[in-house]
Amino acid sequence: MKKIFGYVLGHQPKLSIEEIKSVYISQRLEFEPKDDSREVFVLESESDVFHRLAGSIKLFEVKKVLSLNDWRPKVLGLEEEVADWIEKEGKIVFGISAYSAKNEKKLVINLGKKVKESLRARGKNSRLIIPKEDDLSSVSVDKNKMLSKGGEVIIFASRQKVYLGLTLKVQDFEMFAKLDYGRPKIDAVSGMLPPKLAQIMVNLTGIHPKGKNLLDPFVGSGTVLQQAAFLGFNDLTGSDISEKAIEDSKTNLSWFKNKLPDIHFKSELYKKDVLKIAELGKSFDVIVSEGYLGPPLKTGVGVDEIQRNVRELQLFYEKAFIQIAKVLKMDGVMVMAIPFFWLQNREIFLEVKIPDTLRLIKKDLKYKRPDQIVGRQIFILKKGYLHA
Question: CDD domains per the record (predicted)?
């Protein structure tokens, strides 16, 4: 039976929505997008794919849909229905989160009080967790055991409708923290690809892992291979021009196997310049990588230095894409993050010529933290010639 699910998105909403769609495709699940905003993506499907995602922080099932016309009083009149959703044995712990263009904390508090009164009338003791802003963090939902002791009620007001629902799952923040900061080898000089972004990039391939092999030609500290294994890819290859990167990856992947012994995979690591990657003598179904981001930049860097980096990196990536394409199987998919720069309130992108053997699927996906000069522009490419 089809249900309407809402995915609460992370800090990079466009990237998060693209990841959700790609995972439904890779898992061969039908879905129909219904609504979206910078905070929530709503779709209809028989199943959710939340357990495979890294870019979504909560999953809720829509219980009721209202029109936008005078919707706040209607929501406040639903206290009995909401109480039904969260009623459990013992003391009930619940919270309410609102996702909307406007500040809805007053609505959240008032509805919470009315639900609490409704539960009291039923002889139920309850505790209402009030968010600091409009919404509760996934950490708060988890630490207060809301999903087992009551529930988190979601109010999502889009430009079209108002959705009310109940949270089903929250992101396993402790697992992601362990897979990031718990690793024995981290290299801040060569760049630190966050495990969440690595997992999103693997998901963006839209490829089911069964029977597929995966290459990361800029393996760094092994983050892409780690998250690919986490998602079920079990035939992994990494290469890098740096001997230190190869050793760091070996150490980190060994640590990962010890921490999660139920995940089985084989990995091969090679010291290899990406411009000589064809010397591996292998071809791959999937290539996922964060490429070279350029030399480290200091705060206060000028336009001339940025432009010099852009010119050098453009030439490098045009050569690199040609060589990487040689080891990608026909109809194989490549997801590659290359740098873009943020300077004087504008974005500066590399203009990289894509080889004829690759078809550009998408290049408008970006990942950047607010305090960073260098962001990542994510390319999705497929091996195959364009036919006239």
Answer: AdoMet_MTases (cd02440)
